[in-house]
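go over whats below:
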Amino acid sequence: MTETLTVFGTNPRTGEALPPVTVETTEAGVADLVATAAAAAPGFAGLDRSMRAQILRAVADGIDARRAELIEIASTETGFTTAKLDGELTRAAFQFRFFGEVLDEGSYLEVTIDPPGDTPMGPRPDLRRILSPIGPVAVFGSSNFPFAFSVLGGDTASALAAGCPVVLKAHPSHPGTSQSSFDVITDALAHSAAPAGVVAIVHGTRAGAALVAQPAVKAVGFTGSLRGGKALLDIINAREEPIPFYGELSSLNPVVVTPGAAAERGEDIGAGLVGSFTVGSGQLCTKPGFVLVPDSGDGDRLVAAVGAGLADASGHVLLNEGIYTTFTEEAAGLEQRTDVRTSTGPSVVGTGFSVSPMVVETTLDELDLDLVHEVFGPITVIVRYPVDSVISSATKLFDAFPPSLTTTVHYAEDDAALQGLTELAVAHAGRVVYNAFPTGVAVSWAQHHGGPWPSTNSLHTSVGATAIRRFLRPVTYQNAPQRALPPELRDGYADIPRRIDGTLHPAGT
């Protein structure tokens, strides 16, 4: 008989257990929820786009209506500030409304019509192509974004927009937040024409493994550690039917400061760096983990500004005991090393999972590649490079790094190195940031949140309009009668952009 395990969060400010939220979902329970989602899939896929858009907007309205309640629960479970969580909720609501706009606009369907006719290859039949929902999707919530990349995150919003049922895996760091967020979605669905079972939630590590193994699950969205992602990939690889795994896994997010940039605004860059690597207590996937700074007087002023900002950087609480243990062990090991210089913020006051931020400084010649790995928490490594070798230094460092979600270039207006650094950055990251910092990912048509492995393993990510593309597959109808076609493929339909006989026709034409 399987033991029933209670699910509860931990207050990271005190280390104390919080009241129980629920019990772990059994494997049989997971199977039942997935079966219900699979049964709901055809009806949900068949809903008019405008009806799905209404559901998404209703979720956004529910987020706004329950904002205070959600923030209170999440703050207790995560230790994040109210300001950080409030911004996340604003982003979460915006994501759902944004995908409502994506549905209204309709180009995501990639409707393409090739009328019958004679071609150099012979007669061509009537061919009409559209993207269609793939079926139930498993979404794993992340620890570090209890709203924007969890139950109310972009994976959920884009999968529902695509017309796919979603079975959510709650993150153990914030089970109460996950459950309350889930309630927001179910309330919105209850007042819609969607069939029952379009969204479900499971709790527990065993439930997550069982979820990925379910044959009716057609894709997995995951934001988390490289180790966790590989564990899920092992389960997927053992399935009889392979399915796509869309993972955001690990990222160092290097920053390069050119000599010209250090001379122009070194103090501002140093202060901005502290703000970037300590926001969210350094637990953001876009945290700048390694920073190339010229070994010069201008670079010294930049590093001094980092030290000044560090002195005021207090009140940092990590999400859970695992992250806390790893961070404190890493920090203790770094303080014992003789080949690096470490600086820390104010001493920790209090209990729970509180830590002091840390800056590690070394030179390019002395750099130990053991330092080249992601560490969750408020820590970054500054690597000083010879002032006359920014491109070769960046090349050496990037060759030692795994690719990342982002690369940042701080440059001066007349920097001759800009083009070369851009080429390096594009080869090693999915987003290149100029004269800013990578923390913060807009929700927009042009944005995405990916990069070469191990940062992600997919062309389309959970951020931006193309997130919906992950949960759709192409279907071509050949010589189909009009009544058998989806409305968007029928003659005379003009509400969305369509490509007809090779020519793109805007909506309304």
